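quick one before i forget lol
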Amino acid sequence: MSPCVPSVNTLSVRPSSESLSRGIESKKRLSEKLPLFIEPESPTILCLLPLTSNQIVL
């Protein structure tokens, strides 16, 4: 789970509209490729998915 923490901190430190739109873009791309990220080889991506959603909600 530790690999997720730096990513969240980076997002939180820069709450600019640019980073927000980039986060929304990333979420769209993740939604398109969702089946790929459910594979057990990508635990970090799975960990990032809910955090990305929370970041966009904020």
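fyi Residues 4-57 form one domain.
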